[in-house]
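User: Good morning. I'm curious how tryptophan would be positioned relative to this chain. Could you predict the structure with it bound?
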Amino acid sequence: MHHASPERDAWSSRIGFVLAAAGSAIGLGNIWRFPYVTGQNGGAAFVVLYIAFVLLIGTPVMVAEIAVGRHARLNPVGAFRKIAPKSLWYMVGFLGVATGIGILSYYSVIAGWTFGYFIKTVSGTFSSSITSDQSVIVFTNFVSNPIQAIFFLFVFIGLTTLVVMGGVSSGIERWVKILMPILFALLLILTIRSVTLNGAVKGLEFYLKPDFTKIHGSTVAMALGQALFSLSLGMGAMITYGSYISKQDNLVISAAWVCFFDTMIAIVAGFLIFPALFAMGLDPAGGPGLVFVVLPTMFADMPLGAFFGAGFFLLLTVAALTSTISLLEVTVAYMVDEKKWHRKSAALFMASLAFILGIPSALSFGGVDWLSKIPGIGLGFLDLMNISLGNYSLTIGAFLISVFVGYKWGIHAVRSEIEEYGNIFFFRKIWTFLIRFICPVAIFAIFVYIVVTKNYF
Ligand code: TRP
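Assistant: Good morning! Here's the predicted structure, ligand included:
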């Protein structure tokens, strides 16, 4: 085992890192966000763009972030400062830490719903068959109750805090190893149910038959943002997790596995949601409530539905937890490395910030009117956070990281970081081309386009 310094925690193996990083990547982004953003952006054509962005931008940035982290063995702010001292690059780290707190705040609201839905399913809310209209009412009542929304937000941030206080290797690694395969198995079973429903074909068509006339500037920007969000890129989460990897591991292989697992789960989640959604005659552009409305209706009608439903929401809660852990961990690593705080106080402090910032998101589904539809913007507070932070801030972050790694730190430095212990840098030439040219240029072009067309949301 390799430790950089006696106090710095580390993953116990390559598998340990891959699972923890996959745990970070796989979460609500795959099962909640991917289907609803795909639904709002026209279906199959969006999926094609999404996959292209995972390959051309996500995967190279994944390699870049992990390499930066492992090289510096520090949080994002410290890592930029160490590699490029006396420059302003550390600001990219700050942008990441701030974005992390922001994403954690609203992500935990949705994660709280998942946990709430687990309890609802166990307590029999969906045991007799319900129509999709009834399901919409159950959902609306649930999320518009301010006390409940804030309570579940609190519970979820509390859980995250407890794990992060315990450190990286002891808790996260062990659990992810057991729970992720179960989640995947359950996802497959439910997907089979969904695609065999009457009327599923329409959903498959929406999901698989691209109609490229549906692509606008914002569609492209959303697909890129979704790829980055789902892979946990653009804010230094992978810099932080990379900082705990052993120097002996081939980080290119690890990065590829993480991207592969994450994309698989998102694609399967689409096969779960869209057939069921069309079979029930719901609107694919229904927004953040999509999975919470579609799935209970399906559970209520299937054999052992309560069992599958409860299992599904419980595992989704766990998947969300392994993601919020990584969001909080970035900010905690920053406080611990740079400000010399104790891990426990840092976790409590940052989690409290995220909780307070999460309250307006928790109240933005009917709890408080003006937060549910912000005047002049027309979006709810959570939606706005989700697009500005979960989409654009990550996109800006990924742009800056690719410029940093491609030009400032440099290709040769990355190469020696990867090859130092005799590992092979697979696809080195392609990676070099992508990180130096495709990533920055494509992201820049997308930004110019949406600014010119004023097509932000
Ligand atoms: N990728 C996670 C998901 O899909 C969310 C997440 C965790 C994240 N850490 C992140 C997103 C860091 C962006 C950056 O659910």
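Confidence is low (pLDDT under 50) at residues 1-6. Residues 381-419 form the longest helix (39 residues).
Let me know if you'd like a different ligand tried.
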